[in-house]
Structure formats: C-alpha cells, structure tokens
Amino acid sequence: MSETHASDTPQPNEDQRLFFARPWVFIRGVPAMKFLPPEGPPEVAFAGRSNVGKSSLINGIVGQKGLARTSNTPGRTQELNYFVPDGYSGEGADLPPIAIVDMPGYGYAKAPKEQVDAWTKLVFDYLRGRATLKRVFVLIDSRHGIKKNDLEVMSLLDKAAVSYQIVLTKADKISALALPKLEAATRELIRKRPAAYPTIISTSSEKGFGMDDIQAEIANFALNG
C-alpha cells in the first residue's frame, strides 16, 4: 500500500472484511442500455483501456480467480457485466446491496469498427445516464500512464458530474522509485478536474497490493450509502 494514498482511503473494519468474505456471483451481462437492471442499489464501475487489467483486478478485489473472465486478447469484455455478493437477493439476504460493473474496455481499434462503436456507445450512455452509479474506478496501466482516450473518458465523467477515482494497475511492473513520481504526476494532472476523487490507488493484481484500499471504498458505499 502506498503512503501517498493510505491516509485518505477508508480503512477496512470488521464489517467491511465480512462484506468481502462472502463469494460474489455474476448476475447479468448487459449488451445494450435497455437490458440494465432496475435502478436501486448503488453501483461502482470499473473502466479502462482494453488490456489494462480490469478483470484481474476485480477478481483480486473479491478474492475469486474465475469470477471476471480474463484474457490476453483485448476487447474480450463486450458487455456491462454485473457482479454482486452471493445472497443479495431472495429471502435471508443479510448484506446491503451493491453491484460491481465490469465495463467493456475502450481504445481498442483492431476489432471491427461497428463493434468498437457499439461498445463505446454503451459505455458512454451508461456513464452519462445511470443515477445509481456512485463511482467509476478509471484504471490506468502504470507502465503507460494516462492516454488521450483516458482523458476523453474523464472529461465525459466531469461533464456528467460522475465521481471517478484513478487506479494505477500493474504497479509492480515499474520501479519502486518510479511509482511515487507517477502517482504525483497523476494527482497533478487530475487536480483541476471537478469530478475526480483526489486519492490515487496503486495496485497489483499479481502481487495483491492495493486490493484492500478498493475494498474499503466499495464497502463504504454499500454500508454508508
């Protein structure tokens, strides 16, 4: 866990640890806006360029290797994939409801143009129009930093007044000296963006660090609204 964000991130307590002790399940893939579940419980979404490591990160957060499908082929996630804690619905549910949404990656140009356009429209329509969306975690590959289409997504979120937080993925792939510099440069880049949450979270799905920081953020929305 990096000292640059540890003090600002909600710290896990016993309720939050129990929140992630239960298995999570896939409930729905949404290929178009009309298939979205009814608005109600809060949602947090994970967005990022194709192959940024979204599925691996989600699996790391919930502690299940096979929940979100991972692939070395960019563009595999083609729908909004919804995950919730097991026991959410039905009699005897004892957890406050929240959903994790794995979004299609953006910025992948090798798929057919019609397919890329459809994914892009779905992502942007969801980000603009989902009232129950509490935060978008915008994933940035630590090796490459923020790119043009990341900035485009941030501008969209700023315009829609949707809170978003930068998550640096694959942080174990750069040097220990480079990481604080990247965090500082990223904070400076988002400093004047109105919807950007100021705390940067650095993570590694492979090494397991940073997972507790994101868990604390998610549990906070579920437990405290």
From TrEMBL:
Family matches, as InterPro entries: G_ENGB_dom, GTP-bd, GTP-bd_ribosome_bio_YsxC, P-loop_NTPase
Pfam families for this protein: MMR_HSR1
GO MF annotation, one: metal ion binding
Record has Cell cycle as a keyword: yes
Cofactors named for this entry: Mg(2+)
Gene3D superfamilies, sorted: P-loop containing nucleotide triphosphate hydrolases (3.40.50.300)
Keywords: Cell cycle, Cell division, GTP-binding, Magnesium, Metal-binding, Nucleotide-binding, Septation
Highest taxon, organism lineage: Bacteria
Annotated EngB-type G domain residues: 40-224
Assigned GO CC terms: cytosol
Stored PANTHER family: ENGB-TYPE G DOMAIN-CONTAINING PROTEIN, MSS1/TRME-RELATED GTP-BINDING PROTEIN
Name of this protein: Probable GTP-binding protein EngB
Organism of derivation: Aureimonas ureilytica
